[in-house]
Structure formats: structure tokens, C-alpha cells
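Key idea: predict the complex, not the pieces.
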Amino acid sequence: MEMTTLTTLAGIVEFAVPVLFAAIGENITEKAGLINLSVNGTIILSAMGGFVVALTTSSILLGFLVGAVIGAAVAAIVAYSSITLKQSQVAIGFVLAMLCRDLAYFLGAPFTNKPGIFLSKVPIPYLVDIPIIGPIFFNHSLVVYASYLFIIIAYVYMFKTRPGLMLQGIGEKPAAAFARGANVKGLRYLYTITGGALIGLAGPMYSLAVKIGWAGQLSGLDGIGWIALAITIFGGWNPLRVAIGAYLFGGLQQLGITLQSATNIPIQILQAAPFPLMIFTLLLVNVGRADWVDRELAAMPERPRKVLSKILHALRTSPPSAIGVPFENE
Amino acid sequence: MSVELRYSRSARSLNKSAWVNVGIRLSAIILALLFTSVILLIAKANPLQAYKSILHGAFGSTIKLTSVIASWVPLVIATSGLLFTFTAGLWNIGMEGQIIMGSVFAVGAFRFLDDTSLAPALVITLAFVAGAVGGILWALLPGLMKIFGGVNEIFGGLGLNFVAKTVAIWLIFGPWKRPGVASGSGTEWIDIQYRLPYLPGTNLSLTILIIAVVIAIITAVMLKGTHFGLRLKAIGKNDKAAYILGVPTSRYFLLAFGICGFFAGIAGSILVTSKQYSLIPDAGFGYGFLGLLVAMLVNYHPIWSSVVALFFAALSIGNTELQYMGLNSYFAGVLQGFLVLFVVLVDGVRKQLVKTR
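Result:
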């Protein structure tokens, strides 16, 4: 394979990383029965916070830590408002999405376009020498390697362990989980805040590794959080499928960069390309549930009907059934 | 997704005096001011001086004051539209894109009718009609996707916001580019005879003020005093129950979206004819998002929303004065965000207190 093709593919793997962490963080939150709608603002604020702290302390580790803390703090507000106060989860999440973004642009102004520090590439010895696979997967910064492990850990934890089953329980049938002795509210706090910390990590992953630096509203981060939320739905609340969604998004971003150098399409148009696709994929995964689709299918001859309903069924995803519903200990 | 939008009945019965509500809003305002003051201190600015310069920036002269009112107009129209969707229990986050589409259609109408011999007043009216059509079409999309595609209106609307902005950018750089060089600063200005004149010595057109007041009144009357408003509210409270009782929920969802889009289109046309005179990439100026915050802040109350919209408009205009202190104009968003955040939180705390008493 040509060198440029390999670089492009490696770019896709890299671009997918922050949105992958954010989407799986949201996945964990939603599995527990909460929606954290603040993702877009959280990512921008933690990107700014992480960049500034890394710059002033010369510690990249501290930058990532601050990103996670910001994400956890925002999620804690969502959790308190939703679990304890039982306020609308959409309302609090939306306000925080707006507030955190403006806060980042306001406080980050003095640090705009400052040269900062960033995570360098650490090729993995031997593995990087494997033809094709090596340059694509093993010539990256540490966060990319962390993402491989993270996908597996998240999947195994969620579907193959006891606490993971409990996590599904509090999102699907909280009353039953409570009857079995689960502290539903406490666990929801725990998973919402953990998920928030993961979402917060996405910020410094951008500003310190993938899209290095802080450029205020020109950082190109506005909108990515909403995509991450859509990827969670597209992924059907399964970390493996969510990861596929994240790689598709990484592919689109990389495609934008390639197209921009090859054609003279304005960058803003390429940046918006994922959004119509987001709507389209959401239609695809949801439409199988609509009544009129059932009616149309029933009227069809047998063979195409079987094929179509199989496709729709494979695409279809359903949210955890208690999502967005406050829980009251009885 | 169950969204509790209003006070529960038990809370309301205990809530006999309006003063409790005023007290809650006041304590939320104080908390918000406290937090924004801390933020200002972090930004190494003197909070008192900052608030003073915002006041000066909003009310310091006739020009400034009328700018505030001119900014109130699209905000109150956007908020009014959103009150319809909120009442039906819908989150029309796509409002911003609907305003942009209103502007796109209005500018398109001006370009199309520019060389005809129609009277300017007629051309302006037709541009408003076009803008309204654009807003309605763009608002029906998330509605149709919700009803027929099962796509949550929040995601449909959000995606469409970005698509609308992309359409505007494509027009600006492509088919509608300025003669000579295409530029991100927008399309060519509409002819001077199509611009709504300002009252002498001000920044305000009387026409748009009248439109806004009429829309605010119509909204309050329709939501509070008609059968339609009542049905919409029933759907918002419990769409399944309303459906079983014979309210055609899908039709009402689409109606709410349509009305909201209509107002969005009018707001977009107003921005074209009285402020920007052209199509720019950010043709919605954030009024759609701000309208959502206003509606949430007043707990979806039509009359209070006009008052709070004025306050938000004053913040947004006055805020530009902060540049003389070396601060950028995202401060208004910070203060507005903290206000809504604390109103939601304090209101939640009060509900819990009422419950435990």
C-alpha cells in the first residue's frame, strides 16, 4: 500500500479516539438510566482546561486529569439535578452544554493560539514493523493505544461481569435491581460521574494529542459532542458498535482533510458533512420501530418482506427502558 | 424520555403566594451573579466594573437602548415560537436552523424579485412570506422525522441546525457569492429600498417592534385562553393519555412545529431586513438557542418570557462593552447559562423541600 493511504488510515484511527471515549462514557451513563446531554460543552471546556493546565504546569498528565475532573464535575451536577432533585434531564444537560461552551470561550481567550505542549508519538517496537497494520495501528500517541484497551474493557465489564449486569439492571429494571439490594441511586451517581470523567477526557485528547492547541471558537470542537451522543444511539448502547460509529466519524473527518487539499470546497462545508449523515443513520436505526413501516411490510410479497425486515431488525437499536426516568426507593 | 416540565400539582397547591416564586428566582439570580463574579475574578477583571460597563453598554444612550429593543424583537419572537413546542412537550432545539432558513428564503426572495417593477413594500412582504415558508419547512422536518422515523426531535433538530448553516455557507461561497470575490462575510446587501427604516436617531425599526408585540400577544392568548392551547398542554403533559382520549397527537405535534417554524421564519426575515441586509453564515445570531434558555428560565410562561427576553437582550448588547476591559463577548452566555442553571437547581430544591414538609 502507498504511504499516503497508510497515513490516511492511521489518521482515521487517531481522529476516532476522543469521540470514542466520549461516546462510550455516554453509553455507560445511559446504561445506568441517565442522559448526560452536556457532552458538547463538557468536551470544549475540558479541552480548554486541559490545555491551559498542561501549558502552565508543563505536565501533560495533569492536563488530562483536569479534563477528567471537569467532566466528572459537570456530570455530578447532571446527576444531582436528575437523581436527587428529579428535574428534567434534558433541561439541565442542555443548559450545561451551552454554559460550558461559553465558559470555555470566555476563560480560554488569553490562551488562544498559544504554543503549548502535546503528547508525542510512541511507536510500539516490533508491532509497528508489521506491514500495513503496524503503521496504521501502532504508530500513535499513548491515548490511541489506551482506546484499544478501553473498548475491550468497557465491553467486557458491561456484558460479562457481575457489576456490569447490575449496571444494565439499574437502567432496564431499576425496581427489580432495588429489590435485589442494589443501591440504585448511588450506582446511578457513580456511573454518571464515571461516564462524565470519560467524556471529560475527550477534551484534552483533542487539545493535547489529536487536534493540538486551543483556538477558541475556531478550535473546530463545537458540534462533536452532539455527534458523540448520536453515535451512542447508533451504537445501540453496545461499546463495540459505538466504537464502529466512532471510527466511521473519524473516517469522515479524515476524508474532509483529504478533500480539502484536493478540491476547493470551503472547510466549513466539509466540517458539516457528518451532520446530515447523523440524521440519516438515526433514521435508519429508528425507522424499524415505526407503525407505518410494519403496515407497509405486511402488504409486501413474502420474499422482499423477509429480507427487508431482517435488515431493519439488524439495524434497529432500543435504549435502556428506564432511561430518563427518575427512580424512587419504595 | 419523560420530561417533567411543570410544577407537580401538590407543589402548586402549596405555592399559594407568588412571592415564593419571586424569592426562588431572586435567590437563583444572586447565586448566578456570585458565580459569574468568581469567573470574572478568574479572568482577572473587576466584577463591579464589568457589571457597570454592561449596564452602560445597554442603557447608556438612545442608540444603545434602541439596540436592546431591536435585539429583543427576534428573541421574543423565537421564544414565543418555542413556547408552542414546549407546551406540546417537544424540545425544538432546531430553532436556530429554522431562523437561518428563514433568512435564506428571505434573501432568496429579494434576489429573485430585485429586478421586477413591484413596489418595495410588496417585495418586502413577499420576502417575509418566503422567510416564513422557509422556517415552517425546516421545522416540519424534525417533526416528520419524529412521527414517521422515530428520531428524537432533539437530534433531528440539532443535525438540521448544522445543515442549515451549511446551506447558508454554500450559498455564500457558491451561487450567491459577491461579484468578484466570495467571502465569508456574506452575500451582497439587499437594495436600500428593501431595508426597513429606523426611527430617527435610533437603531430600531417600528415595523419589527409592532410585529414582535403582536406575536407575543397572540402567543399568550393562544396558549392561555384557547381550546387549542389547552389541547396542546394536555399532549405535553401526557401524549399517550391525550391520544387515547381522542386528541390527534401527531397533528398537534406538527402544528406546534409549524407555528414555531413560522415564527422562526419571521425572525429570520426581520434579521435580514433590519439588521444584516444580507445572508451571513451565522444568520441566526444564536437567537434560537437563547430563546430556549429564556423559555426554560421562566418555566414556559408567555408573559414573563417577554420580560426576561428584554433582560437577556440587554445583557447581549451591553456585554459588547466588555471589550474595553479586554474581555470577549461570551460573558453574556456565561451569565445567562448560570441564571438558567440555578433556576433549574433552586426550583428542584424547593420541590424537594415541599415534598418532605
